[in-house]
């Protein structure tokens, strides 16, 4: 079961947003396979601090795969080798003794590196601010059971709502497109009856904000594979459809 | 500076809003998703052409006469309503527009993605991205360049000393009997099939044609189309080289014309 | 001699208090709201909902969070559900029943008026969240589904798969981002509050440190709202997120805000046991697992056999044995203490002998693996991902872990602390859960505070200051607070010790877990009161914080947080020592019944203990707020 392995890490170190970065190599010996990937980095950092070196900056918070704070490019894969698993839930039993592991930050022009493995993901919040909400002021809501929602619609909306906003879809995309994130956010609301009044305005605004920051989808499907919540790219297709409809409807509404 | 989320404090956009806002519906083309729609629709048109073109070319297996008749049928399309070749030209113009838009949208979307993307110094380890999806930006230009050569060779006759205008059977068999030309043809058509393998699937996603019950069929359809076009198109150079398609260097159309001219001489 | 604190609970019958009080509170007219600045620290359920609601009302709101996005706050990790007295299931629920269950569940150590109000607004939360698009579970008819949770006898818990907290937070976050886009809320991410600024005894602003640039920034406002969560990370290992801390609340405490009931901490029985010393956090497995799993340990200590090799007569199903009526479904604290008991006897299981089995073999024989997979598939997968063991074949191993803290800054009925202008919401305050929180009530309280209580009560405070501009940040009180932050930062960087911040945090956690954990006694608490300060002194002398102040420096961030946890830990011990009774999550071994159950002392301890800071050199002063129970009868819990 539990065993100890020795690893060689090649980690991206970058002192600040505008500084040049480069790889540094660290030997990580005696790592238990029961450790999570981030705990392995914790151990490396403890050793670095002991030897007087600046610890590696990486971000994490809940460490149970739901807050979306963590995210590393591990051997060229967003969140590492295990499907449907965020970096914090990846455990060292996915690796073998003697492995070389390359660790890089998410890379996209709109995810500038802040330091080492930490990046700025505010562009994703900008997409949500553009229309990722239902405009209902506090207190104005009708009784929750006034609007029945077919279970199928609720379930599909939920699949989209499961997005944790980690940015792995952007990181994994060869175009640095944020289509899966934006589509999940759009479709979560577009699929629900409550989301209908703003459906077309929301779709247009969110898609166009996304396009300001991220690349264009060429349907590789890498995002779906990288997504720790396994959100399918079907949502992207539906958003593409909604977007063109939105362009037609919004014009009519504007007239 | 505190890290506020406002439009001003997010990282600078990689793509600024177009300076000139075109009128609707052209404005749709100014967005990336709109361009993907155009790419999907024009891709569908081009795919349709390629399929018809390949199917039509199967007349090569019937013989020079039938090919000539097929060519005439195309020229006579719509003669009930419009003068001869007008409809054919309309289709050609449509194809040219589709082709230009397909290339332009591809170019500008690529520019957008290149601006948005940053290289991983340690490389990527792809999972879902196929050879086809990753090489669209290579197979596309290969097809484009080849298309130019293809027209120059078989329509305009720039490179073929034995070129006979209006005799596809003769021109094809003459041209493809040269080994380098046949190899070029094969390479380009492999690129085309690879392009279609991803493009025909991708089209459904870009156009938002997605219904979970039938989604698995989209990959099969793309593979079938790419395969059929590959087999059909590759058969021509192979069979020319094998001597199955061969008019012995004598152009049927040329003889027809000479015959017609001789008759007029009487 | 400290007098009794006045919570300013409105007079009148319980059911009319909130309605009457809403009418009696002063209002701020719509065009005047935009003349008031409000700072909200924290962007979890309470903070985001409050900021969004205040923004909608027209206040000028500034949200400060140390996260990179408001959506990361730890509310997101709540799994189970949210209670509401909707009575959709026609099973006899009512506002009064939810109130009663919450008071009783809190072991009669919370305020009747607050809890009743919480139950009253609970239904509105469900309406609000549903309208925002929160995808609660539904039945085939399209209406909302409910389940019974945490031993409640009615089905009043609304849920969204195992992600109720995530979905509710995304709802509040979306409402917040709408206000950000509308310009009513200014959002500052990666900004950590390190000082509360007070002037004439009122809260007038905060000082933050920008975590990227190190810039020390003053923020001024007419009122400050803290929604900064709980302090479970004082144990180092808890189900809290890595960054959760007490700093914002503690800095307010140091500026005069009373800290109430710090010893009330909640232990959750079904967490995955630590696998090694490097363990960084513990993961909670939904309590619903106890519905079908049977908890057992080997009868004999140090039984080295694999679980399937141990025959039934070699197993001790200790909860079923001791509590035949409730069996494996006894409340959290009872289940937790019993698990600790058998582990302490040397009967723990797993490589480190630090867990008990939660066995689904019988359930799978009874219901079939397919049904069990349908019910718990996600949880089983998560367990396997973390432990590498397949719970369909090998019994799960579980052990209790700290999950929630009921204590927090003292607030009155209007959620204002004793420092005027300082409001405290959600887990950061102490108000509604007494000595023990019921399952699915944390989300309810956070959102009730933010959506439906603060937006009313803050106006009652602000209306006094109409026409007064917020204090300029050029005032000396701000300069002083900024200097204090700058001094603190340079102090950490100049210590140049030998051990990391995490090392001391882990050592502190061990002390707190051993002495102020699931069971406490006088000897242990006295030890804690001598060992914690000793370790703290060493920490301040010997911690090693590398790097500089003007970059992203995570050791520097943690250094201040851990220093505050040290001070809090000491106060927890002092509070636990002073409370000579057992109640809810606070179990004093000296105060138990012959059967080993918690024994309250309503005569002497039916009060809130609220501690006042007296400077770093002396212990805090204990104040009391007497709790009056006029609508419920105090009973002793029994689960036999």
Can you walk me through this structure?
The complex is a heterotrimer of chains A (255), B (266) and C (640). Chain A has 255 residues and is α+β, with helices and mostly antiparallel strands. Chain A has helices at residues 37-50, 122-129, 151-161, 168-172, 179-190, 199-213, 222-226, 234-254; strands spanning 4-13, 22-32, 73-74, 77-78, 100-104, 113-115, 118-119. Chain A folds into two domains: 4-115, Beta-grasp domain (Ubiquitin-like (UB roll)); 122-254, Alpha-helical ferredoxin (Fumarate Reductase Iron-sulfur Protein, Chain B, domain 2, Orthogonal Bundle). Helices cover 36% and strands 14% of the residues of chain A. Chain A has a five-stranded mixed β-sheet. In chain A, helix 5 (179-190) runs antiparallel to helix 6 (199-213) and helix 5 packs across helix 8 (234-254). Chain B is mainly alpha-helical. Chain B contains nine helices and one strand, in the order E-H-H-H-H-H-H-H-H-H. In chain B, helix 1 (32-57) crosses helix 7 (179-206), helix 1 crosses helix 8 and helix 7 (179-206) runs antiparallel to helix 8. The longest helix of chain B has 31 residues, at 86-116. The model of chain B is unreliable at 1-8 (pLDDT under 50). In chain C, helix 3 packs parallel to helix 12. Chain C has three domains: 17-83 and 162-266 and 404-465, FAD/NAD(P)-binding domain (3-Layer(bba) Sandwich); 268-402, Flavocytochrome C3, Chain A, domain 1, CATH 3.90.700; 476-616, Methane Monooxygenase Hydroxylase, Chain G, domain 1. The longest helix of chain C is centred in the C-terminal third of the chain and has 25 residues, at 554-578. Chains in contact: A-B, A-C, B-C. Chains A and C meet through helix 1, helix 2 and helix 3 of A and helix 3, helix 5, helix 6, helix 11 and helix 12 of C. Strand 1 of chain B pairs antiparallel with strand 5 of chain C.
